[in-house]
Every structure is written in structure tokens, then in C-alpha cells.
Amino acid sequence: MPVQPSINLRPFQEMDTAFFTGLATDERVTRFVGDGRPWAPQAIQDRLRAALQQEPVEQSGAVRWFIAVEAEEAVGLVVSTRCDEGVEVGYWVPPEHWGRGVARAMVDLAVSTVPEIYGQVRLIAHVDPAHAVSARVLTRRGFELEASQGGLDRYVLVQTQ
User: Fold this and answer.
1) CB atoms within 10 A of CB 55
2) Residue 159 — left, alpha, or beta (φ > 0 → left; ψ -120 to 50 → alpha)?
3) What is the share, in percent, of the chain residues with pLDDT greater than 90?
4) Inter-residue contact 124 to 88 (CB < 8 Å)
5) Which domains are assigned to the chain?
6) How far apart are alpha carbons 79 and 51 in whole angstroms?
7) pTM, full prediction
8) Alpha-carbon distance 21 to 157, whole Å?
9) Where would I find the H helices in 25-98?
């Protein structure tokens, strides 16, 4: 197993728009996101607007995005969204960083960072059942499969206290 890269999370900023647009328009990245196709410009703009708006974290639908940075280079995106069940987290990694442990590091950081932002909340992740690598990243970090619905598997972080 490769050594986990040294990654930090920082809040998403307007200057990260091009990085996100690159992820959202790369069919390899979006294969397991939404309808599995690259995002249209309007969808990208809508999501960017929501990410930069910074709604109060207590509000349903509030989002916070984070850029995963390694040696001052963006290597991934962590997204978090308040929903009725808790806070949903997701992560996107550009193909040039696949297989290096970037997703593992990002999930580890999300598990500690998201509760700092939203308070003690239930962490949830939705995964396409065909995306075995993502499911493995989550389960190795303490998430368990809770249910399958709408074509996605829902994982929840099991708190060990």
C-alpha cells in the first residue's frame, strides 16, 4: 500500500473555479456522479454559486466545499451538504492523482473537519454500487453500508465511543 500523501484541506474559494470545472467536465471523474455524464455549464455555475454563497450551516442544503492540497497543488475536492439525515460528504479526485491514497486522506480529513463546521452530525456518503473503490475507501474509514435507494448505496460513519 502506498504511503498516504500529506494533504491538507482548505475552504473552497472563487480562485478554485477552474479546478472544479475541470473535474466536473472530465467524464472519468463524473462517471459515478449524478447521471454519470460531464456537467453542463449551467449545472457547474449553479453548484459554484451555492458553494461560494456560504449559507448558515444550520440550514438544510447548506454546503461547504474544501480543496485538498498537497505541496500547494490542488489534488481533490471534498464537498459537504447538510440534509435531513445529517451531513452528506463526497470527494472528487482528478485522474492524475488516482491510486495514490488521495481519497483516503481526504475522507480522513473530512471525518474530522466536517463536524468542526457543522457540529456533531451524522456523516453520510452516497456511492454508486459499481464504484467499488469508493465504497472500499469509506468502509476502511469506519463507514458502513446502511441502505440502497435510488440506485445508490448510502454509507454512514459509525461512531466508536
Assistant:
1) 13
2) beta
3) 88
4) yes
5) 8-118 (3.40.630.30)
6) 9
7) 0.91
8) 29
9) 27-30, 41-53
How far apart CA 74 and CA 110 sit, in angstroms, is: 16
Q: Which amino acid is at 13?
A: Q
> Could you tell me if residue 93 is left (phi over 0), alpha (psi between -120 and 50 degrees) or otherwise beta?
beta
Strand pairing partners for 141? none
Closest CA to 21 of 50, 2, 1, 47: 47
Instruction: Provide the residue count of the chain.
Output: 161
CA distance 131 to 136: 9
Query: For residue range 8-67, what is the model confidence (pLDDT) as tens digits?
Result: 999 999 999 999 999 999 999 999 887 789 999 999 999 999 999 989 999 999 999 999
Rounded distance between C-alpha atoms, residue 48 and residue 93, angstroms: 17
Alpha carbon distances (Å) from 5 to 71, 108, 134, 143 = 10, 12, 17, 21
Label the pairing between strands 86-92 and 123-127.
Answer: parallel
